[in-house]
Specification:
CATH topology of the largest domain: L-fucose Isomerase, Chain A, domain 3
Number of domains: 2
Helix content: 25-40%
Number of strands: 19
Radius of gyration: 25 Å
Strand content: 15-25%
Shape: elongated
Number of helices: 14
CATH architecture of the largest domain: Alpha-Beta Barrel
Strand order of the largest sheet: 11-12-17-16-15-18
Distance between the termini: 26 Å
Length: 434
């Protein structure tokens, strides 16, 4: 996910430091660029209505997620009120240490004004080249970029949800209100009709197209199951294209159990996330984590606690992306039904974040826990991941029950604690750090 920031300076001509406003703006932008943030320098020091309008016109041509106001000196606060009349977007007030410029007190003054007009703003304080400030900025910008990405996300709900899992019932209003995403409800016939329209010859050609990723795999599923599964892959991909979907969720259990798993794994490598059992909310959780990590997300259940090793085993049937595999990938029948094609493999070790989103209305809540994926065996047929935590897993277990957190956990590589907390803050989502 690309992070886009625009930066403009604010200063007063009669204050100490006005002449350094533009160099300070340039230094701040360079520091952000050095850490991978795409920062567009507006190149304006706002100090009059004319310069505010100049900045506004340039800002209208950017695709920035956030605007940073680099406060070089004390300034009349109405310049920002004027700017908001032309361009209203998320703001970071950036203040700098100095005893004679008035940068910090100006930021405090503007913060008070914004509070009284109901305008939210973020605040970063430190020297222009301070990498801790850049890190803090990156977290803030990531949260807003994620908000914008989720606002544009459309998730396809194919066939509704699995019966017997009331917990995963999705609330389209809460999803739109809290995540910004739209649910596109599709009848499962739309999927099966596309599957039935694909001939075996076309399916064989599709398998050949995917030979680079499939040929190295150990295949224990039947030829018939491979052909059927690749047809479901094509059908899902076509639906995603037709309805402009970035995420999918199929009511797989039990009718399509094992039939869509291979398709999910292949789609994961193409940037389309897909969740099991009709859990639409967690399909969006996968999208959120995919944007953060840039890697396929492991769709899991929380299964077993090992108090002695202080680990938790997470796993599901096997539909994760190939690129998180550690070692051999087996294309095998799904457990319980002994049909279809699942992608069974052990996953790579590393820092991971497990996330669950569930609930409705004001109880719409995101829960996360960060740990280390450690080596494990095929303790559950699928894509098992064993995560070691610092907090006692017995305490984690109690907190999950106490806070009414669901049983589906989406696991991403990386520690996204701060980004998730900021994202929840700006979207008014309850957040539990377990």
């Amino acid at each position: 996910m690309k992070l886009n920031v625009a930066a403009v300076a604010l200063a007063c001509p009669t204050e100490v430091g006005f002449d350094e406003a533009m160099p300070l703006l340039n230094q701040t932008v360079d520091a952000m660029k050095s850490q991978g943030i795409n920062c567009e320098n507006v190149g304006v020091v706002m100090h009059s209505l004319e310069t505010v309008r100049e900045a506004a016109e340039k800002l209208k041509t950017t695709n920035a997620d956030v605007l940073m106001i680099c406060i070089a000196t004390w300034s009349e606060d109405h310049h920002l009120l004027d700017l908001l009349s032309y361009v209203d977007m998320p703001l970071i007030l950036r203040a700098y240490p100095a005893f004679d410029t008035g940068s910090l007190c100006c930021a405090h003054q503007i913060g008070a004004v914004f509070r009284d007009i109901g305008k939210t703003c973020e605040f970063v304080y430190g020297y222009a080249d301070d990498l801790e400030c850049v890190k803090e900025t990156k977290t803030i910008v990531t949260a807003y970029a994620l908000k914008n990405s989720m606002n544009e996300t459309r998730v396809g709900a194919i066939g509704g949800r699995v019966k017997g899992m009331t917990e995963i019932a999705y609330d389209e209003f809460s999803i739109k209100q809290k995540l910004g995403s739209r649910v596109v409800n599709l009848d499962e016939k739309e999927m099966t009709e596309k599957v039935n329209a694909i001939s075996d010859e076309e399916a064989k050609a599709l398998l050949e197209e995917k030979k680079d990723i499939l040929k190295p795999c150990k295949i224990t599923s039947t030829c018939e199951s491979m052909l059927e599964s690749i047809k479901y892959y094509k059908a899902l991909k076509d639906l995603a294209k037709e309805y402009e979907l970035q995420a999918l969720s199929v009511k797989c259990y039990t009718t399509y159990m094992g039939k869509i798993c291979l398709g999910y794994s292949l789609l994961a490598e193409e940037g389309i996330v897909a969740s099991c059992e009709g859990d639409v909310t967690n399909a969006l959780t996968m999208k959120l984590l995919y944007d953060l990590s840039g890697k396929p997300i492991n769709n899991t259940d929380l299964l077993y606690l090992d108090d002695e090793a202080n680990t938790i085993l997470f796993a599901h049937c096997g539909s994760s992306g190939f690129s998180i595999a550690e070692g051999e990938v087996e294309l095998a029948p799904v457990r319980l039904m002994e049909c279809g094609v699942c992608t069974k493999f052990l996953v790579k070790p590393g820092k991971v974040t497990a996330v669950n989103i569930c609930g409705h209305g004001d109880e719409f809540r995101l829960s996360f826990m960060v740990g280390d994926a450690v080596p494990c065996g095929m303790e559950f047929p699928g894509n098992p991941v064993k995560i070691k935590y610092e907090k006692p897993v017995s305490q984690i277990n109690k907190e999950i029950m106490k806070n009414g957190i669901g049983h589906h956990w989406m696991v991403a590589y990386g520690d996204f604690s701060e980004e998730l907390k900021y994202f929840c803050k700006i979207n008014n989502i309850l957040v539990y750090e377990i």
